[in-house]
User: What shape does this take?
Amino acid sequence: MIRAYKFLLRPTAKQAQALSEMLRDHCSLYNGALQERRDAYRHASKTTVRYGEQSAQLKEIRNFDPERQGRWSFSSQQATLRRLDKAMQAFFRRLKAGERPGYPRFKTVGRFDTVAFPKDGDGCRWDSIPHDTVTRLRLHGVGHIRAHRHRPVKGRVKTISVKREGVRWYVILTCDGVPAESLPATGRQVGIDLGVARFLTTSDGEHVVNPRWGNRTAKDLADAQRHLAAFPKRTPQRTRKHRAAVRRVAKLHEKIRRQRNDHHHKSALALVRAHDVIAHERLHIAGMTRCPRARPDPDNEGKFLPNGAAAKAGLNRSILDAGWAQFLTILANKAESAGRRMVAVDARNTSRTCPTSAGGCGHVARENRVSQSRFECTACGYTAHADRVGALNILDRAGLALRGAA
Assistant: This one.
């Protein structure tokens, strides 16, 4: 198995300044490489510059600017150029597929937060001592940084990344050969229905509340963003008050992210420990949160008819605040580590079908869903909570999928 470990770094003030300079110089390298690709395509008869050509220039760049580029690891700079190359490849892939291409953008220093080291021992070294929570991370050009290792690292460390989140620094280790820690079998299967009113409902009738972390902090976040917006957008030098306003907004966003992540981990762990098979809907969240199309008014040129954009915007915020995609990713990772099985089924009409496994008739109709929480079959009269009906149908479809695979 491949697993990632994330640990908090505790750099000194001098080391934190060196880490910031490392991000700044790698950001400059990224932007310079992107500018070279743009200029070559525009002014040299649509010439494409590739990673190999830019990587071959690194030695000259380091010799030309030893104070900024020559002080950092050569392999980490190659990883930065590979990062740009992957972004360009993704751009051309989307362009050929007819999707929104999204050309790679230049990075500001505040948005370039990660530097990767492709190999442990090449510009970086993870010094781990068994049975000791204090570990050192050695970085070329920075020194030995204390890391709080709150859990043991298993497997072999392959890649190391240093990431800045707000005012904190983290190290992310990617390890392979991590042994799976299978949990004992429970003989239980469950279907889960993700929602907005409730975060999820199981086929057993259990409900997990939706904390709505973003909604809880919306007022404080709006005040902080309003205070930040009051500063001039283009000033030659940012003031101390402006930097404090930026930190306040970033801190609130980080708080919401940590709260949501903690809730997802705890909910996923409870499901994995109690069930052998977990079924869920196959959701296309990007399509679910897409803005509705404008409806031109045929009688008044230049005007538009109501399309429910305001209500859809509120629903989109609720879906994104719940973080379904992140939760399913966490659930899949924990299930793989514990030896559990995840089954994704078609989401169509799961909340409109009368569940046969609970004594229903299998009738499918839009009218069966009376309200957000009430289900009443128009054919046989079966009534239940609508979210539980959806979870039961998800579990039934997972059973059919498992029998078909067998």
About this structure: The mean pLDDT is 91. The longest helix spans residues 240-274. Residues 3-176 form one domain.
